[in-house]
């Protein structure tokens, strides 16, 4: 199987190097030049809990693509994903047999991808793996995780089983899901609550959780998400979301970390808020459901982007 990982930062680097280590032919495609140059010169530098080592990798810019792939894994940030997908399509990297899979956080990726490739070629995945990028070419890979994935049209094919085998071989702990939209919404709910609140408040998750009224703060945000998800035909339960969010509070889980949105913003990069709270707001408008809390969070994060994001 020929595999391309497009958007080869923290998560793309993690997933791609694990798949490559399992013996598959992996090409990394990325647009951030210092990163591309670093990987071309020295490969990825990988730091784990116990060791630091180099892994050779083939990394090219999207303009340089001249091959076709069986599986394209999109792991840009959400705002770069459609442009990347379109470039790969235009370059002939995606044929009618190519599976296009994304593990990006956020909502609506399936709908946007469908405007570029047919639905039966698109797979949505939700991962509990994490990864960090310490600088161009430098990955921080700690902990373990899982990947749930499903073809967007709900059908299972030979290609689905092949992808599952690739992920198995790579030690990514995959599951072929039969309810991926629920899992997508559940993770998006977590990210739509914890990410903007910790970003706006400039707090680690554990410090946010220490406030005795944090449940009262998160409740109206979640209620809106549950209502909008239901209008989209996805049943996500309020208590399940609360349980997931509060499960991320302890120091042993994610507590000591700042969420990724906080890290992006305070290192001067745009956030994915439009694909979380902003997407909830947009769907809400489609169905006439007011989402004042999610709308306000979106605006507050955009205000902060004006202050912190370099031009
Ligand atoms: P990332 O920022 O590490 O990489 C995404 C893209 O941004 C890559 O093309 C990378 O080269 C580029 N980039 C990174 N730093 C840059 C800089 N300083 N200047 C310019 N470009 C830069 O993002 P990620 O963490 O790999 O996330 C990719 C997707 O996966 C997102 O949708 C994210 O929400 C999701 N995700 C991430 C994690 C995680 O732990 N990192 C976990 C689950 C899901």
From TrEMBL:
Keywords from the named record: NADP, Oxidoreductase, Pantothenate biosynthesis
- Where is each Ketopantoate reductase C-terminal domain found? 180-305
* Pfam families (alphabetical): ApbA, ApbA_C
Q: What is its EC number?
A: 1.1.1.169
The UniProt record lists the Ketopantoate reductase N-terminal domain at: 3-153
Reactions performed catalytically: 6-phospho-D-gluconate + NADP(+) = D-ribulose 5-phosphate + CO2 + NADPH; (R)-pantoate + NADP(+) = 2-dehydropantoate + NADPH + H(+)
Question: Which domain of life does the UniProt lineage start with?
Answer: Bacteria
Q: What is the main EC category here?
A: oxidoreductase
Which pathway is this protein engaged in?
Answer: Cofactor biosynthesis; (R)-pantothenate biosynthesis; (R)-pantoate from 3-methyl-2-oxobutanoate: step 2/2
Family that this chain belongs to = Belongs to the ketopantoate reductase family.
Q: Which NCBIfam families match?
A: apbA_panE
Q: Outline what the protein does.
A: Catalyzes the NADPH-dependent reduction of ketopantoate into pantoic acid.
Q: Which PANTHER family does the protein's record reference? A: 2-DEHYDROPANTOATE 2-REDUCTASE, PROBABLE 2-DEHYDROPANTOATE 2-REDUCTASE
The protein's name is 2-dehydropantoate 2-reductase
Origin organism is Staphylococcus simulans UMC-CNS-990
């Amino acid at each position: 199987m020929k595999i391309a990982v497009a958007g080869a930062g923290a998560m793309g680097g993690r997933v791609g190097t694990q798949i490559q280590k399992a013996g598959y032919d992996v090409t990394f495609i990325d647009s951030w030049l210092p990163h591309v140059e670093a990987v071309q010169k020295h490969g990825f530098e990988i730091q784990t809990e116990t060791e630091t080592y180099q892994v050779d990798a083939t990394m090219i810019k999207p303009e340089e693509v001249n091959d076709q792939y069986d599986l394209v894994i999109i792991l840009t940030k959400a705002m770069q994903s459609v442009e990347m997908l379109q470039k790969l399509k235009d370059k002939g990297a995606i044929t009618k047999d190519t599976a296009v899979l994304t593990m990006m956080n956020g909502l609506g990726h399936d709908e946007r991808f469908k405007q570029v490739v047919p639905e039966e070629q698109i797979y949505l995945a939700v991962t509990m793996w994490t990864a960090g990028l310490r600088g161009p070419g430098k990955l921080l890979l700690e902990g373990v995780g899982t990947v749930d994935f499903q073809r967007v049209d709900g059908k299972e094919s030979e290609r689905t089983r092949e992808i599952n085998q690739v992920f198995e071989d790579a030690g990514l702990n995959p599951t072929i899901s039969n309810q991926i939209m629920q899992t997508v919404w559940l993770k998006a709910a977590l990210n739509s609550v914890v990410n903007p609140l910790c970003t706006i408040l400039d707090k680690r998750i554990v410090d946010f959780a220490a406030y005795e009224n944090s449940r009262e703060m998160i409740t109206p945000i979640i209620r809106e998400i549950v209502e909008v998800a239901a209008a989209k035909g996805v049943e996500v339960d309020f208590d399940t979301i609360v349980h997931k969010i509060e499960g991320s509070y302890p120091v042993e889980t994610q507590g000591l970390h700042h969420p990724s949105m906080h890290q992006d913003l305070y290192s001067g990069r745009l956030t994915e808020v439009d694909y979380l709270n902003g997407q909830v707001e947009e769907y809400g408008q489609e169905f006439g459901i007011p989402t004042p809390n999610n709308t306000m969070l979106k605006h507050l994060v955009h205000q902060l982007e004006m202050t912190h994001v370099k031009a």
